[in-house]
Write a structure and sequence with these properties.
Length: about 400
Amino acid sequence: MSKIKAMTGNTTAAIAASLCRPDLIAAYPITPQSSVAEYLSELVHDGILDANLVTTESEHSVMSVIQGAACAGARTFTATSAQGLAFMYEPYFQMSTMRLPMVMALVTREMISPCTVWSGQQDAMSVRDAGWIQVFVENNQEIMDMIIQGYMIAEHDDVLIPVNVCYDGFYLSHLVEGVEIPTQKEVDAFLPPVHFNHAVLDPDDPIAVDSLTSGEVLMRYRKTHLEAMEKALDIIEEVDKKFSASFGRSYGGAIETYQCEDADIVLITVGGMTGTARDAVDIARANGIKVGLLKLRFVRPFPAKRIAKALSDKKGFAVVDRSVCFGWSTGPMYTEIRAALTNENCDFSHFSAIGGLGGADISLKHMLIVIEKLEKEKNQPGQKDTLWLTKEL
């Protein structure tokens, strides 16, 4: 029988990974991810988790070790943040383009410089085109559930793409919430044993892996990778329904909507800020403002069609980003959602809101300010100036 326990997001991630029976865990510490690796190490050394634990000299080595294990057909897990992610970039990119499935917790954090170790989503957003599936979660329960779902998605024969479960550093990684922990028997019944049909390493039949590739072959690799990403959108929906049937919790698939059916305007969020936004929507509704909430869960693959449908009859939307798009002076998810509406009716008000950088708070007041601006400008079509959610607001 499952039990509810109060624990941090990092502890949640470690327990979720252990329930998925990984064959190999590779680890290197970096704030605010370190306690994920530390807790998994305890589970292995206490004999609770039967897995090979490899402590390496760098994040580059972490992903390289995992890559070798995955090539041999192992289920693998690791976690990282920020500069650690940057250091592993070469094998990180290779992991996806070799179509080796795994799950990695990405405890999101600002990138340098100026030097900071605090929360932000710039690290994850900066690698969103490295070929991985990326899901951003709202709370610790969703960390638990998406790591378990992540393996089913990644290892699906029509997908075979690694998954990042992204959650806010410190706001989730170090803060405590009640989490329902499924039993090992329940997870075993839901998640099949590891299998994928292109695990190729065999000591008795040695071959070269990832050898020099010509342009025509590389183009075929990229095309099939993109096709698998498209298929993953359907698989994500299927896995969410299966998970709901087994555990009683559904997250709606690639996006989740709240109070959107009759809304005039829509607030769009990514990650842990969503709970605050939901409260703001309730308050605004009580004051007569018809606002809804769209929680963008999967950044890759990007659910463009579902977003366009959800916004098609609205009068305005705003996207709150916890990172920046340096080329457009807006948030990255605002630029992508705006692009998703290119061929749709976009004759309404829309703008980018940016906050929470470097650990700054995105408060209830900030969310209400965004809603108030949307309501005020909903009959003024076009893009408005970026709203910076600063302490002074």
